[in-house]
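pls design
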């Protein structure tokens, strides 16, 4: 795994070389893709059941749902980038969250989760976990004292997301880790919108960092994937339970595509973040735009935390206009450079309206105070804009055309 020879290299270099193994047979420098589902095994060696092994990652390759060489190379690369001892890949980002929740929590346990997260994760925590006897409390982690008040003797995990999709509210990860650890709970963070270019949560005390690799890390909109990185023994436990038995293994071809995406992660993210800063500044001066949220803007309500916790502000913008539904129809019809679509973190810019009423009905279960705090950012709804690699001038002109009467 990545420690040892890779120690001391900068993250930009680790994005290329973390865990890279030169093919001993062919000498190939680029990672290959191993599509084989199975590998030769030695009769009598190893175990048939994953339950009889400790750390499966220390065993020879046997069957691809347990461990595949190309997926393993991706895990090594991500572990190196996050400064983690190990990492475990899943077929999607949501599978990685489900793997963490179902791998760590059991009936009677309590999960504290940020009241605002990516919709799929909020819905998973709200619907499936309580059915399994796992208590879930959504908490606004920016509210002083709220985390402390929510903790119970049976709280095992505090899960946050920073910046949170869609409103780009940040969580003070070092502070959450301090409070949760004093209580004996683990902390996980969905760092998809930050990427390791902006934030390395493990260095702030977080136990598990989770990414949807589908987004900026792959960056090309052509592969789903998820990953969780952390301490060796925690990842080994998750691999044996959730990795093997949930069956959400990452396909080898996706691992290969995502590895190739990571090669250019740093220059891509820096370019995207710079463009996002220019587009956010333009939107803030536009007469049709009533509010812009971007961690790099001086107007971001947590600008000091953003400066402390994020090396770059990142590629996401949230903005509001009057008549958001009418504006959404205009954008879908008029945009020529950006695309009106779901997802984010691709090479092409993507924008979509997130209607607050719909989010409250289908996704979140918030207290009146939590809903008011959400509406303080989002109003009746706003546009989630994911910046791509287009020229900033072209994107600004495109948005200007779409926003016009
Ligand atoms: C912050 C965040 N986490 C997780 C996910 C889920 O990722 P996936 O679609 O790979 O399951 C998304 C998807 O939009 C997301 O934005």
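designed seq:
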């Amino acid at each position: 795994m990545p420690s040892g020879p890779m120690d001391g290299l900068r993250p930009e270099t680790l994005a290329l070389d973390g865990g890279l193994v030169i093919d001993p047979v062919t000498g190939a420098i680029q990672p290959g893709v191993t599509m084989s589902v199975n590998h030769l095994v030695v009769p009598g060696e190893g175990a048939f059941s994953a339950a009889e092994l400790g750390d499966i990652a220390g065993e020879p390759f046997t069957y691809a749902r347990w461990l595949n060489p190309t997926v393993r190379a991706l895990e090594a690369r991500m572990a190196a980038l996050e400064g983690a001892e190990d990492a475990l890949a899943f077929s999607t980002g949501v599978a990685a969250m489900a793997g963490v929740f179902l791998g760590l929590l059991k009936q009677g346990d309590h999960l504290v989760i940020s009241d605002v997260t990516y919709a799929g994760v909020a819905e998973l925590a709200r619907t499936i976990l309580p059915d399994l006897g796992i208590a879930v409390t959504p908490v606004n982690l920016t509210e002083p004292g709220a985390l402390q008040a929510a903790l119970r003797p049976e709280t095992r995990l505090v899960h946050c997301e920073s910046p949170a999709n869609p409103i780009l509210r940040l969580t003070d990860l070092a502070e959450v880790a301090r409070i949760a650890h004093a209580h004996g709970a683990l902390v996980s963070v969905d760092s998809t919108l930050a990427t390791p270019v902006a934030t390395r949560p493990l260095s702030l005390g977080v136990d598990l960092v989770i990414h949807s690799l589908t987004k900026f890390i792959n960056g090309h909109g052509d592969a789903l994937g998820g990953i969780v990185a952390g301490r060796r023994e925690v990842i080994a436990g998750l691999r044996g339970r959730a990795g093997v038995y949930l069956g959400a293994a990452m396909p080898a071809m996706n691992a290969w595509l995502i590895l190739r995406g990571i090669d250019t992660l740093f220059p891509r993210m820096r370019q995207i973040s710079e463009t996002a800063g220019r587009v956010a500044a333009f939107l803030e001066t536009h007469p049709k735009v009533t509010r812009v949220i971007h961690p790099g803007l001086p107007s971001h309500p947590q600008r000091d935390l953003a400066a402390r916790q994020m090396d770059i502000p990142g590629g996401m913008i949230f903005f509001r206009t009057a008549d958001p539904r009418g504006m959404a129809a205009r954008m879908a019809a008029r945009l020529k450079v950006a695309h009106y679509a779901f997802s984010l973190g691709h090479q092409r810019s993507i924008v979509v309206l997130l209607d607050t009423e719909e989010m409250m009905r289908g996704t979140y279960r918030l207290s009146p105070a939590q809903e008011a705090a959400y509406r303080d950012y989002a109003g009746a709804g706003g546009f989630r804009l994911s910046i791509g690699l287009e020229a900033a001038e072209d994107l600004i002109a495109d948005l200007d055309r779409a926003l016009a009467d």
